[in-house]
Design the sequence.
């Protein structure tokens, strides 16, 4: 690269040579457009979580304040409540500032001359903005306040809500009207083979973009194929689509490397080279990829929807053929009739149809779970596991990294305090403290968010950060001894800037290793808790509950209920462990299979 | 720093760890939304009775008083009475009643991995990149990733149908009935631990002199071992996989070291090299792992006791937790914390003895 291009920013380099970037971006847009309404649907799902979160935050905050006032008296309660609010606000402000605001507010507003730290001021502004937003969202009828008429109609709160509703309306319209490549509308697998007498009433095949195409005799399924084949086509199509995405992201990285990167070579290139010959790590990557796609595309994966199968089985009807006639029945009633009960007469096993012509790729659950379809249950359960695993890893990783930076930079007393704290938390036996916390908080408002999944994520984060901190403490200490840290100090760089710029990049890789290794353990623990009847509350599916439901039937023809979920846990956990091994060998080739990573790897602790 | 100075410091540091750990437990129990009075009385109780019980338990006093009482009680091992599980029974009595079965289970689940995992790991390390190595390594990885609760369910079910499965696997040649094998036993009941009677003695006359022996019932002993084996194997599964993998790495590292090369150069036989130079040194990194695993078992035993219906400490904890029996939960937590903390110190102590190269930091 010439001198001129080297001095440009990333966006500057793209502007100078836009063709490869535009080609890549075009591909992304194309990929997005075929699944557009599914992505909008996912956005709606996130949006719908905001209201329970805001409402829940009020409940939880109220509970905290009440507890503090009850136990510490008026003065103590006030102080503790204020302190709690401040801590929460501070954490959120730092997070929002770091994640969503890429520019300096202080500079934009021209407040550099004020005699307080720019960072603090910036975060205070963000914090104040958050408080206002939260209040507006929470106390919707702000119009009753006497001061508000001054703002005039419509009030700010109404505007915020109106905007949100308009967006939701647009999103709903998009979901309803824009066809999606991988939806069950385009590739339906629910249908029946109409008897000859009703063949004209129920034509074979399904409508694709207005035209009815039929290869097989089935009514309502994709091309009139049998439900099993239609379902298989959809699943294969989903994985193909995800695979194309993967290839395109890799392509994007290569484009960046070839055309837009400042340096010809970075250490990261070597890491990727090492990964590309690491078969075991690649195996892990493939497994993790399969799991991620299963979780992300769960609504389209199952042979039936979660609404029909789990949440509202009596609110949905379907048609089937009995005695040469087309009948209508609710999913709930049909589910009960097709439960797997361990006898050959009462069993819908792997790759089987039930009496109502519905296909069950890995059979059905027992009567205790109302004979639901196991695959739909597992696909949605994968979402729950993934959500808990990722959120808790992210939270505990955040805590662990922050503490590792601080302890490695300041050493001494700060280190000692964190050592004692983390030792104390680690001295509490794992599964027991999970059990205790999930029992204690089972009737608390926080356990309503995502059926207790959010609570579990918090529990795992609160008990999991010491292990992560221990793991990255060594590397953090090592880097804090380097000369460039001394140099930064002697320049008078602020400690937070030194930590972020000169220490964090070195440690971040280790976080990836241990994150991947511990996420398997979290999946096992979540499953173990729901096996014991704690944690994620029914009817929200969880893998461990399937094992518990299938417990009496392991040696019968209904062996699939407990065995397949268990095998899936083994598979996914092995995958995460293998991926962690691969990343470790790529980042830190000297460690070569020894070190603390071994014990951090998920054991079947649950 | 000398070894003793180091351990004095470790012990000193253990005090705040224990105190803080117990404080966390107290905070969870008393600040959390758990209502012990409702747990005792059940729903729909008149407020007067509610207030009376609250008064009786001292739950209406200021929190700091309760905290001090709780801490002092624990530190003097006055663990208080159970609220719900068995009212007005000392928590300590309950724990002592339930402990032996858990200890028996824990003992075997530490022992079995030791004698299976480490030899397998060493074998794999001594024959690296052979079929046997791949088989053992891959088996270890899978074995480690299996969730205990699932493996336990599978073991339980297969053993209770052992006749069918043995016939199926050997095409009807072998009929193996687990519950009638060697000694008869039930599956899904706690193992009998009365094989050793510390009070009763047996008198035995040998050549004119009478010696007294503790009575020891072999049949009951064998039954107890047999019954504890399946849950112990499952509980030890994770440790077995871990020990195997680490054993393999340790052997590989030792066998490639300079002194082994020297030993080979001076013409020592392979057997001597392996047993004298490799084996003992490769054991060193395994010591902390073994002890580490030991306290993982504390948590894991809850699930095994639940599946195999062994009423040990884990079962007691689970019942106490879901029924809101605060004193029992608190005491159990305290005891577990003590075990974990002292096991940690003991592990470091052992480590410095085995491997003097370890620094005291």
Sequence:
């Amino acid at each position: 690269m010439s001198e001129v291009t080297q001095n440009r920013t990333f966006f500057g380099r793209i502007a100078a040579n836009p063709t490869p970037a535009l080609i890549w971006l075009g591909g992304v847009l194309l990929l997005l457009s075929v699944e557009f309404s599914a992505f909008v649907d996912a956005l709606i799902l996130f949006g719908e979580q905001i209201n329970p979160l805001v409402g829940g935050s009020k409940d939880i905050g109220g509970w905290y304040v009440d507890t503090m006032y009850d136990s510490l008296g008026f003065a103590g309660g006030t102080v503790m409540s204020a302190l709690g609010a401040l801590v929460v606000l501070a954490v959120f402000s730092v997070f929002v500032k770091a994640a969503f605001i890429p520019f300096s507010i202080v500079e934009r507003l021209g407040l550099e001359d004020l005699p307080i730290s720019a960072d603090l001021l910036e975060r205070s502004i963000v914090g104040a903005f958050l408080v206002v937003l939260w209040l507006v969202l929470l106390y919707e009828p702000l119009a009753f306040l006497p001061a508000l008429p001054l703002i005039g109609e419509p009030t700010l709160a109404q505007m915020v809500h109106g905007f949100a509703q308009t967006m939701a309306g647009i999103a709903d319209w998009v979901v309803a009207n824009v066809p999606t490549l991988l939806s069950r509308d385009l590739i339906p697998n629910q249908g029946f083979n109409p008897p000859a007498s009703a063949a004209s009433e129920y034509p074979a095949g399904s409508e694709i973009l207005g035209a009815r195409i039929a290869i097989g005799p089935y009514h309502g399924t994709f091309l009139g194929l049998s439900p099993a084949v239609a379902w298989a086509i959809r699943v294969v199509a989903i994985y193909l689509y995800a695979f194309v995405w993967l290839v395109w992201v890799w392509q994007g990285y290569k484009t960046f490397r070839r055309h837009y990167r400042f340096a010809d070579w970075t250490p990261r290139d070597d890491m990727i080279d090492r990964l590309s010959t690491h078969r075991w790590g690649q195996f892990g990557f493939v497994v993790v990829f399969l799991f991620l796609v299963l979780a992300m595309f769960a609504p389209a994966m199952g042979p039936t929807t979660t609404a029909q199968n789990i949440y509202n089985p009596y609110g949905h009807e379907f048609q089937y053929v009995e005695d040469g006639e087309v009948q209508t029945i609710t999913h709930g009633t049909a589910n009960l009739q097709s439960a797997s009960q361990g006898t050959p007469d009462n069993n819908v096993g792997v790759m089987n149809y039930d009496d109502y012509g519905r296909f069950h790729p890995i059979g059905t659950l027992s009567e205790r779970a109302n004979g639901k379809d196991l695959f739909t249950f597992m696909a949605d359960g994968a979402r729950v596991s993934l959500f808990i695993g990722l959120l808790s890893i992210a939270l505990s990783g955040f805590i662990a990294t922050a503490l590792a930076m601080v302890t490695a930079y300041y050493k001494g007393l700060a280190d000692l305090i964190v050592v004692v704290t983390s030792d104390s938390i680690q001295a509490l036996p794992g599964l027991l403290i999970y059990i205790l916390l999930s029992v204690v908080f089972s009737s608390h408002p926080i356990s309503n968010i995502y059926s207790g999944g959010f609570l579990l994520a918090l529990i795992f984060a609160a008990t999991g950060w010491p292990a992560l901190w221990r793991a990255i403490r060594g590397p953090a200490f090592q880097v804090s001894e380097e000369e460039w840290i001394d140099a930064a100090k002697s320049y008078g760089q602020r400690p937070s800037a030194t930590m972020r710029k000169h220490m964090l990049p070195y440690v971040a890789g280790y976080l990836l290793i241990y994150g991947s290794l511990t996420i398997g353990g979290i999946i096992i623990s979540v499953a173990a808790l729901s096996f014991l009847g704690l944690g994620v509350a029914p009817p929200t599916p969880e893998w461990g509950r399937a094992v518990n439901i299938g417990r009496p039937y392991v040696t019968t023809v209904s062996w699939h209920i407990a065995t397949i979920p268990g095998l899936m846990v083994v598979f996914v956990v092995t995958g995460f462990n293998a991926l962690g091994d691969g990343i470790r060998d790529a980042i830190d080739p000297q460690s070569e299979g020894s070190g603390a990573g071994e014990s951090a790897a998920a054991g079947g602790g649950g | 720093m000398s070894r003793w100075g180091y351990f004095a410091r470790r012990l000193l540091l253990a005090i705040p760890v224990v105190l803080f750990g117990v404080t966390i437990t107290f905070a969870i129990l008393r600040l959390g939304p758990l209502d012990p009075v409702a747990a005792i009385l059940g729903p729909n109780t008149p407020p007067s009775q509610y207030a009376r019980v609250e008064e009786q338990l001292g739950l209406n006093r200021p929190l700091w008083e309760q905290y001090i009482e709780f801490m002092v009680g624990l530190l003097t091992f006055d663990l208080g009475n159970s609220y719900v599980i068995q009212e007005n029974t000392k928590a300590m009595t309950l724990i002592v009643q339930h402990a032996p079965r858990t200890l028996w289970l824990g003992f075997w689940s530490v022992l079995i991995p030791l004698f299976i995992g480490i030899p397998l790991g060493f074998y794999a390390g001594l024959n690296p990149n052979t079929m046997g190595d791949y088989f053992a390594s891959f088996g270890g990885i899978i074995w480690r990733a299996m969730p205990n609760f699932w493996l336990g369910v599978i073991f339980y079910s297969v053993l209770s149908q052992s006749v069918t499965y043995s016939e199926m696997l050997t095409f009807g040649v072998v009929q193996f009935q687990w519950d009638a094998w060697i000694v008869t036993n039930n599956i899904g009941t706690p193992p009998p631990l009365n094989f050793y009677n510390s009070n009763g003695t047996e008198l035995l006359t040998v050549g004119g002199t009478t010696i007294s022996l503790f009575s020891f019932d072999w049949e009951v002993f064998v039954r107890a071992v047999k019954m504890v084996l399946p849950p112990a194997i499952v509980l030890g599964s994770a440790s077995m996989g871990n020990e195997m993998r680490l054993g393999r790495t340790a052997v590989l590292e030792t066998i490639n070291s300079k002194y082994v090369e020297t030993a080979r150069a001076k013409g020592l036989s392979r057997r001597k090299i392996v047993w004298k130079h490799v084996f003992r040194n490769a054991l060193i990194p395994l010591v902390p792992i073994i002890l580490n695993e030991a306290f993982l078992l504390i948590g894991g035993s809850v699930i095994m006791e639940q599946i195999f219906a062994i009423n040990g400490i884990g079962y007691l904890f689970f019942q106490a937790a879901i029924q809101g029996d605060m004193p029992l939960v608190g005491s159990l937590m305290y005891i577990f914390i003590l075990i974990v903390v002292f096991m940690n110190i003991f592990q470091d102590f052992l480590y410095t003895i085995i491997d003097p190269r370890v620094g005291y930091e």
Notes: The beta strands of chain A are 206-208, 211-213, 317-322, 325-330, 350-353, 359-362. Chain A touches chain B through 58 residues (CB under 8 Å).
